[in-house]
Amino acid sequence: MLYNLLPPLAGDIGFLNLFRYLTFRTGGAVMTALIVCFVVGGPVIRWLKARQREGQPIREDGPQGHLLTKKGTPTMGGFIILLGVSVATLLWADLSNAYVWAVLAVTMGFGAIGFADDYLKLTRMSHRGLPGRLRIGLEILVALVASLWIMEITRDPLSTSLALPFFKHTLINLGWFFPVFAVLVMVGASNAVNLTDGLDGLAIVPVMIAAACFALIAYLVGNVVFANYLQIHFVPGTGELAVFCGALVGASLGFLWFNAPPAMIFMGDTGSLSMGGALGTIAVITKHELVLVIIGGLFVLETVSVIVQVISFKLTGRRVFRMAPLHHHFEQKGWAEATIVIRFWIIAIVLAIIGLSTLKLR
Question: Sorting pLDDT into bands at 50, 70 and 90, what band is 224?
Fold first, then answer.
């Protein structure tokens, strides 16, 4: 909004030219989202505690220690993140940019699905929320509408193509299979973050790292000079997504203040589904879907651990891991929660560096 209102006044007030610069507005989005989360975090937590006296229902088939250490902690903290991201993005982004609205729509759509899931869990006092097929169906619907919208606003041949990391100009035209692929990316990323969200601070920092990486990717992909220099595909208009990513970084930092061990609040599906969906959508728009698999490799590992566990148990009756997702396996092995969280953060940082290296290694 500031971008649309203030630069035309720069002829009279020179410093308003700053609002033309993407880097300045991205920094502003980081700080705005951070401040919003700090301001509303405490009151929201107190409000949720008053209405969730038992806190988030804890799975009885999960780690037994969680029945003691996690009980009574409120959920739906993703509302804090969504508020910070939406306020900062609407304030600092170019609101005439369709990509910004597409990412916001997916974020809020997945957030609404997650909110419904959290609400049902609380009202039923059970870890079962929305029926699985209904939840996935709603996610697919939101992602499909968004993918068709993205196809419409992206120029050919990028609108239906998949770019390959490490290759300069290679594009695989997926044709009308592209919406299916985009839906898989968005829904997959959303649920991968959801599976990772199982320990205090475990999911939010890797999300923040991935958002920071995609802020850089969006900036480079949306700048014709840098895109040509790095020999990556130039997608006009994607630079504005750096502002959204900056807002997500700031909101993640603000939420971490309250989610750091021991957590005062859990993000719940409201937060995990929305943030994963946002990352998947940005990857689709910037044509870096496969790079997301690397940068978000921690989320992939957690998801694969669940898939392997289920397949192994159904086929052989044996479990590969002591418990899935992967972080629970290490809990069962006796690792302290803080140890697991920090080591997984380190893995996320290493994978992010590898993912960013694909921008130059071509």
Answer: very high
Say if 58 falls within a structural domain. Answer: yes
Residue-number span of the structural domain to which 136 is assigned: 2-154+177-286
Residue 55 in this model has a pLDDT that exceeds 70: no
Compute the CA torsion angle 134, 161, 297, 25 (nearest 10 deg): -90
Q: Residues 246, 345, 268, 210: is their CA dihedral positive or negative?
A: positive
Has residue 315 been placed in a domain? no
User: Which two tokens mark 200?
Assistant: 């205090």
**Which of 333, 193, 166, 187 shows the shortest CA–CA distance to 267?**
193
Other Cβ atoms less than 10 A from the Cβ of 103: the count is 30
Contact between 39 and 84 under an 8 Å Cβ cutoff? The reply is no
Neighbours of 316 (CB within 10 A): 9
Band of the pLDDT at 72, cuts 50, 70, 90?
confident
Mean pLDDT of the chain: 90
22 φ, ψ (degrees, to nearest 5): -65, -40
Closest CA to 292 of 344, 253, 324, 245: 245
* Residues sharing a CB contact under 8 Å with residue 34, sequence separation 6 or more, in sequence order: 84, 250, 251, 253, 254
**Structural domain includes residue 181:** yes
Q: b/e for 230-239, b at 16 or more Cβ within 10 A?
A: bebbbbebbb
Amino acid at 66: H
Strand pairing partners for 29? none
Taking alpha carbons only, the member of 256, 127, 119 closest to residue 199 is 256
pLDDT at 285: 97
Q: Is 182 among the domain residues?
A: yes
Total of domains in the chain: 1
Q: For the whole model, what pTM was predicted?
A: 0.93
